[in-house]
Amino acid sequence: MEYGLNAAKLAVGILMLIFILRLLGKKELAQITPYDVVYLLVFGGILEESLYDKKITLLHFIFSISVWAVMIYLIERLAMKFNVFRKLLKGSPDQIIGDGKLNMHLISKNQLDMEQLREMLRRQGIFSLREVKDLYVEPSGEFSINQYAQYKSVTAGDMKLNIPEEDPSVLLIDQGKVKHETLQFIDKTEEWLREQLKEKKYTDLKQILYCEWSKTEGFFIRTRQEIIDKK
Asked: Can you give the three-state secondary structure of the chain, one letter per residue?
């Protein structure tokens, strides 16, 4: 009897989960919001308690899982109908780069550092911040990028051009701090870096928010005066 009850609860739970997943829409895993994760965690808690607590009957379980499903449905409908409610539940994109300028408030809000930012760009085939005009962090955590026109994809084969390969860039200064391990990796010294920046009229390294360098493109620098100062 106990085995049959547990089997019935599992069957009901799986059917209800399939129903809710269909209700939430066809999302990739990367598009699942934190609230979707909460829904699934609550479902797991309800199912676990019902399986191991003999006092919870099948009707009790169906009632609990039905309330859970109705609440999710109502929340999703409210999110679709009211923009304020949708932003509260689903979040909204954060533009951490606008017209080539870094928004440090939003970068900090999203718990990002410069190396993480560069890693995410590399995953999308972008190896220098100089290419990025606008960058948004979506509620799912994915990046949406608008490149400057000169960097957008037009293949050399299409244009019948012989273009030399570019070397990847490296981050040398991150929020005023010199990355000594990176300098060592490219076989350069801090003295070399300071001399190069001095030639470009940058004398106070603490005022440099972001500095990258590559053999083919040279330096790309953003100072603390070149950020978006708004929340």
From this structure: CHHHHHHHHHHHHHHHHHHHHHHHCCCCHHHCCHHHHHHHHHHHHHHHHHHHCCCCCHHHHHHHHHHHHHHHHHHHHHHHHCHHHHHHHHCCCEEEEECCEECHHHHHHCCCCHHHHHHHHHHCCCCCHHHEEEEEECCCCCEEEEECHHHCCCCHHHHCCCCCCCCCCEEEEECCEECHHHHHHCCCCHHHHHHHHHHCCCCCHHHEEEEEEECCCEEEEEEHHHECCCC
pTM: 0.61
Tens-digit pLDDT profile for residues 174-199: 989 999 999 999 999 999 999 999 99
